[in-house]
Amino acid sequence: MKQIFSLFFTIFLALCPASFLRTGSANADEIRKSLYAGSFYPGTRSELASIIEQLTGRVKGTQVQHPSHTSLKALIMPHAGYIYSGVTAAHISRVLKENQFRRVIVMAPDHRVGFTGGAISDVAAYETPLGLIPLNKDAATLRGNKYLFQGIPASDRLEHSVEVVLPFLQYFLKNFQLIPIVLGRGNDLSDRVSDALDPLMDQNTLLVVSSDLSHYLSYQEAVARDRETIKTILDLNAGKLLTRENAACGRIPILVVINMARRHGWQPMLLHYSNSGDTAGDRSRVVGYAAIAFYGGSSMQNSIDSSQPLKTHQGQALVKLARQTMAERLGKKSIKVDPDAMADVAFQDHRGTFVTLTINKQLRGCIGNLDSTESILAGIKRNAVNAAFHDPRFSPLKAHELDQVDIEVSILTEPQRLEYGDSKDLVSKLRVHVDGVILSKGSTSATFLPQVWEQLPRPEQFLSHLCMKAGLPANDWEKSRLDILTYQVQYFEEEK
After folding, report:
1. What number does CATH give the domain 416-491?
2. What number does CATH give the domain 305-412?
3. Residues ≥6 apart with Cβ < 8 Å to 59
């Protein structure tokens, strides 16, 4: 192993360890020491800097054309030994620069302990051979949510998945503060963590997911499985990722970043893929690696964040309100929604809303309003009635069907006109699984919610079916100049 890390030249980083410390000095027991230096990556500063420099040099020719008028919001990067995954990890050099972010949140999976919820270290700093990284004060704030996060010393002592990505971040960003989060088990953990992190995601914060992909398949099997997993991530298809076997060890952290991307309209971009069979491993049993960047508009103009996103508990209250409203119309008893929950000031925001009903995953009604002429609360109640009893495609909902119905509520941003040149430009500007689309020509118009991308994942398909829904020829979007508006949606499915 020592020979592997021996290189022909050394480079020293101009980093003073003192610059990484908080005001005053930290006691030794307040520092989380690097445990995997010398095994997953070199154990000395000079060797570590040299191998990162060498890996970076191998990817310098890589060109990254990120979406215009956007900035980097999040990364997915691998956490294997550098001889295996280092080339893929080094591709983050194409999107990072010195002092680009003041705070980095690293989310990683638990491999070694086994716990529910999230672990956040109760230390002053993390140490690697490149120096100390102070913890951001909001690490303690998050840990104050004891139902979600806690300090778990055993995780600090054993887990490698946060530590291994840190030297790359130190090398490219130089100075930043850290929030290290290791995620364990929990059915709704990704939703709750998304809610907790959302207020922290400002322009100075980078969200990093530490995850490898498939484990111990043959080379060809791994490539096929990993390509499908990467496509699932790029499509922001959380439901599909949740059910995939042997997709990624960091599945829950990836689900968090998908949630955030769907909330805020971030666009994912694959930077690099490889597996251990491409680098230093046997091709009979390989591990897959991907580097993926997420970009979003700095102004959040076309994002759900133009108004404050709702929390999971608020969304579930609206789903219960929709069910209660339908039950009252049918003369059936239903669990009453807590009046205090309905008094939430957020529900008085004027937003477009939709209510969608399905039975056995088949559509049973979907009605909503695109404009923001009424409050969220009033819109959900009205659209619940309309979806159940006034959708012209279906007969009115019967009392015996109510218990079979699954309910989804959608909260919309204000539609924005999409400027485009020709049909190819239109296709390139639509964001799969992010944009809802309103298409209109003269007095004819139709819309698809972003959820429809799950059935029609190709923009060409999506537009053709939307034209047909509007009563236009399927290819009218290619031949005519149509008015296109886009909006984003935060949606909540009924918890069982």
Report:
1. 3.30.1490.150
2. 3.30.700.20
3. 87, 90, 91, 93, 94, 272
